[in-house]
Every structure is written in structure tokens, then in C-alpha cells.
Amino acid sequence: MLRSEEILTTVRMFRQEHLDVRAVTLGINLLDCSSPDIDQLCRKMERKILSKAARLVPVCEEIAAKYGIPIVNKRLAVSPLSSVAASHGEEGMLEAARSLDRAAAEVRVDLVGGFTALVQKGFTASERSLLDALPAVLAETERVCGSVNVASTKAGINMDAVLEMGRVIAETARRTADRDGFGCAKLVVFCNIPEDNPFMAGAYLGDGEPECVVNIGVSGPGVVKRALERLLGAGNRLDVGDLAEEIKTTAFRVTRVGELIGREVALALDVPFGIVDLSLAPTPKMGDSVGEILEVMGIEKIGAPGTTAALALLNDAVKKGGLFASSSVGGLSGAFIPVAEDGALARAAARGYLSLEKLEAMTSVCSVGLDMIPIPGDTDPETIAAILADEMAIGVVNNKTTAVRVIPVPGKKAGQKAVFGGLFGQSTILAVPHPGAARAFVKKGGRIPAPLHSLTN
């Protein structure tokens, strides 16, 4: 039985400390919608999405009202379009994406993920078509998000795909130049992509998942920050182990709440409950920032020596507390560091404390990678590919998920500001060191072999 103190603590987390359910994501299998006729394929996709997801938003609204817990985003994740629309070429992929966008609008979800290709070991013809269509899709649709897995610990790094994604990112930025390259905010390049991630832009329904499934992402940077402030304000002599214990306890409470909401939504929709993602996902709002947690922990200038160690402590403690609270943990789970979406990180970038190089070091110990980072608009595709390759190497060698969401901002240079709006936030554009210096390397193509520890069978 919960003690009254624990109940009051949980109530305070919602009312004062920005705790919310960040995303309820309904996964829908669309593989059975495939058809040799693109119009029929699109009709079948729309019918299935409408039949499975029509009640998602009303159910989330009812449960949010019942418990007094905000559910910020309602989303869909579908089977990879590279498989669903495999025989239809670039134009067919674009038409399928428009169909997804229409269906997502009709059921009133915020975003839909699944314009996805898995090319860590090579390309199929349909995957090449999807990559060719990506810039147009991200520019022309409102809700469709794309993700491409170009590396894995088992397969190594597909450098041909890395180079191609450098081109795709540059072209997507060009096509959305009037919005500071915003199309790139809906595209993630992955190593070791998870198949049950509820967060965008990287969500999709992977192999082995149910016909329909509810996955949930809970977020509580503000809750963790306030818990640490109360602990440190009590006048006790504390070491970093004490900070870790407090974060674990707080993550436990947050995860319990998330699983409760997820299971309620799944029950109401009569679909299986999948996982709760433990990730601390920040927003641009003051008090809802991973960066602010690091500051409370004693990092006066985010990006200074000690930042990576503090982030490692935070990430590990969140995972440990969440795993104790639930046996259904998945997705990414840990701490996100999306620069434009995190007010404290954006301020650190503006003040010159936080660089692209330091962010890359931090990604070796957190849950995602180089996330929501604006870079100069004239960064060449080969240099973008080199940024991708470095981050993929961290994921491959450390057997972890890493990802890149960089946004070349057309017409702007380092030190200027990029503004994306809403939860996507804004940030000073970060300098890219030595552009062009790795051009010869990335243009060699081929595949960087998997590391020795990939041979685990």
C-alpha cells in the first residue's frame, strides 16, 4: 500500500515540477496493406490506421482527465515504409507518405513515425527509393517522420549509406530553408535502432512486435531537478552516490506513473501494452531541462570538464530506478540531450560552453546522440556524413543506440540563431570544426567492419 507521503509526493510532481506523460505511441502493423497498386495500398493503409487509431486521442484525453496527468503527445509508429511500399519506387514512396500524413491528421495524432529504412548492411531497391524520397517527404508532409539505421554492432557501419544520408540531410534543409531547415528535425540517423521506441522522430514498429501495441514515454527532468534541490537544500553532507540514490528513487516514481497510464490506455483500446521508455526528455520550458539537472549537480558551465561524468551518473541512475519499477522497460531509456529542445543546453551553446565536440563525448554515456543540433547551412554533405560516421562508431563499438539529428540552417552561420518553435525549440548554431577535412575518407564508401565483440553466437 502506498503511504500518504508517497501519494503527496506524486501529486506535487505533476502540479509543480513538470511531470507529464510525454508520448503515448500506438504501433500499427501495415505490412498486410502491401499491394501492387499504389492507390489500393494507400487506401488500405488509411483504412487500417483509422480503424485502429480512431479512439487513441479520445482515450488519452479521458485518462488524462481521470488521473489529472497531462499526456502531451499522441503518436503513431508504423511498419517501415520501405517494406510496405517496396515495389513502388520514389514516387510511390512519396504518395504513401502523403497517405500516412492524411490518416494521421484524421485521427488527430501529432506525429507518425515509420518512413524508415534499415540499411546497416546494404540497400534493397525499395530502401534506395525511400532515401531518394526523404527530402520531398519531410518538406511536403506535416506529421511524417523519417529514420534510417545505417549501422549496428553486428553489421558495422554502411559508409555508402552514411554518405547518402549526408546528401539527404543537406537536400532536406535546402527544401525547408524558409523554416530554418526544419525538415531535418523530423529525420534521425541511427545505429542500433530500437524497434519499440515511442519518441519521435525515430519511432517505427519493428519485426517481432504485435499487430498493435501501446508504448509510452514518460518524462520528468523537472521532477529530478527539484528532488536534488530538496536533497541538497537540507544541509546534509552528500557525495555523488547520494545524488545517484535520489535520482533512482525519483525515476522509480516516474516510471510507476508511466506504466499505470500506458496500461490504462492499452486496456481501453484493447491492444497489448508494450514498454515504458524511461528517458528524461526535456522541453524548452524553464524547469524542464536535463541541463538544469547537471547544473544542480554542480556543473556550473555545461560543457566544462566533469559534464560527461555527471551525465553518466544521471543516465545510469535513471535506468536503475526505472528498471526496479517496471519489468516492461524498452525504447531508449535514459537521458536525452537535444540542444534546441533543452533550454539550459541551448543557453550553454549560446555562451560558447558547449561545442559539437563536447556533445559527441557526452553521447558516449547517454541514451541517444547528437540531437537537435543546428549547424551552419553551408556545411557540405561529406562533412555531415563524417559527423554521422563518428556517432555511428560510438554506437557500434559501445554496443548501444546512438543517433544523429543535425539541422543545417540555410543562409545562417555559426553563432546565429535557429528557431523551430514549439517542443522543437531554438538554439544558437554550433560551429562544425574543419569542414571538408574528412571528405576523402567518407567518399571511399564500403562498410566499416563490425567490432570483435559482435561475435557473440
Question: What topology does this entry show?
Answer:
Elements lengths: L3 H13 L3 E9 L9 H16 L2 H12 L3 E8 L2 H4 L4 H18 L4 E8 L6 H16 L3 E9 L3 E3 H17 L11 E5 L20 E8 L1 H13 L6 H30 L3 E5 L12 H7 L10 H19 L17 H8 L5 H8 L6 E7 L4 H18 L3 E8 L7 E3 L6 E3 L10 H4 L4 E2 L9
Parallel strand pairs: 1-2, 2-3, 3-4, 4-6, 7-8, 9-10
Antiparallel strand pairs: 1-7, 4-5, 5-13, 6-10, 11-12
Helix pairs in contact: 2-5, 3-9, 5-6, 6-7, 7-14, 8-9, 8-10, 9-11, 11-13
Structure description:
This protein is an alpha/beta fold and 457 residues long. The protein has a domain at 23-191: Anaerobic Ribonucleotide-triphosphate Reductase Large Chain, CATH 3.20.70. It is 44% helix and 17% strand. It is built from 15 helices and 13 strands. The protein has helices spanning 4-16, 38-53, 56-67, 81-84, 89-106, 125-140, 159-175, 221-233, 240-269, 290-296, 307-325, 343-350, 356-363, 381-398, 439-442; strands at residues 20-28, 71-78, 111-118, 144-152, 156-158, 187-191, 212-219, 273-277, 370-376, 402-409, 417-419, 426-428, 447-448. The strands form 2 sheets. Strands 1, 2, 3, 4, 5, 6, 7, 8, 9, 10 and 13 form an 11-stranded mixed beta sheet that branches. The protein has a two-stranded antiparallel ribbon with strand order 11-12. Strand 9 (370-376), helix 14 and strand 10 form a beta-alpha-beta unit. Helix 7 (159-175) packs across helix 14 and helix 11 (307-325) packs parallel to helix 13. It is globular. The relative contact order is 0.13. The model is unreliable at 1-8 (pLDDT under 50).
